[in-house]
């Protein structure tokens, strides 16, 4: 049996467990971005593919491996995998649902606080010798406590649930929108209340994105969405860059349409140096907090992910059904 890993060799080695299944499988690790033709030439055939969450696995690569039984995302996202093509070929596709929920929730809170506390501008002010001037300005301008904010969660999956739990500790009023409203007892347990999407957009101080990338959610946050937000509101995205119209957000920050944005993910990825959000200057840049898509890449998250991956490889190798199937 052969396993193809598309991703970082050092990361794969770091989280390699001491298990019998590892010895039963011949593993080839190929760096992300390697053309399919080179992958096929190096690997020959493969029974399993594990792909970095942003590495595409398309029909042509699947067709090159007649023995392929399983394609597994290393992360939660699987939009780079052609699930329909896999389904047609009888290949199971799995992800690591929930493996990084707590870690990404922490990142979402970090970005909310960084936006409210003017972290980017404040860091620059201290480094340039303007600490006291900024402090005095903000004492008059005002800094909002997170606990005084109404936070709207768009989507209520595993990450949003963990975010809601943490926001409750801050004393926030937490609302959510989801395609399916949760039962009343679940809402009470999490301390959240349901609102239609239009009300989330128009009334919340912070709008936090927690939906997957689908044809329906791609560019969900467009110019119209941003114009309906409160002028001092904060947009937080720890989901996927494709959900936000990148140019529209850059323009909204330049025009003061919204107050600030905290983003752990942009589109495309890898992010080019001339990305419209990366080249903002002046006040627009001060209102934007960026992190390099690290919300879910904690050591604990990767340990959980690779435990699930090897469990699923072993299940498929032994003729059993894996967990976290997304191709049914």
Q: How many distinct folded domains?
A: 2
Q: What's the Cα radius of gyration?
A: 22 Å
Number of strands: 12
Percent in strands: 5-15%
What is the name of the CATH topology of the largest domain? Rossmann fold
Shape: globular
Number of helices: 15
Terminal residue distance: 24 Å
What would you give as the CATH superfamily of the largest domain? NAD(P)-binding Rossmann-like Domain
Please give the order of strands in the largest beta sheet: 8-7-6-9-10-11-12
- CATH architecture descriptor text of the largest domain: 3-Layer(aba) Sandwich
Unreliable residue stretches: none
Q: Main sheet, how many strands, which sense, barrel?
A: 7 strands, parallel
Secondary-structure element string: EHHEHEHEHEHHHEHEHEHEHEHEHEH
Helical residue percent band: 40-55%
- What is the top-level CATH class of the largest domain? Alpha Beta
Counting helices, strands and paired strands, the structural category is alpha/beta
Mean pLDDT, to the nearest integer, reads 97
Provide structural commentary.
It is a single chain. With 328 residues, the protein is α/β, with parallel strands linked by helices. It is 41% helix and 15% strand. It contains 15 helices and twelve strands. Helix 6 crosses helix 9. The model has no long low-confidence stretch (mean pLDDT 97).
Précis, in short:
The protein has helices spanning 9-14, 20-24, 36-43, 59-63, 83-88, 101-116, 119-127, 131-141, 158-170, 184-190, 197-203, 223-228, 246-255, 282-286, 299-317; strands at residues 2-6, 26-30, 48-51, 70-73, 92-94, 150-154, 173-177, 192-194, 206-209, 234-237, 260-263, 288-290.
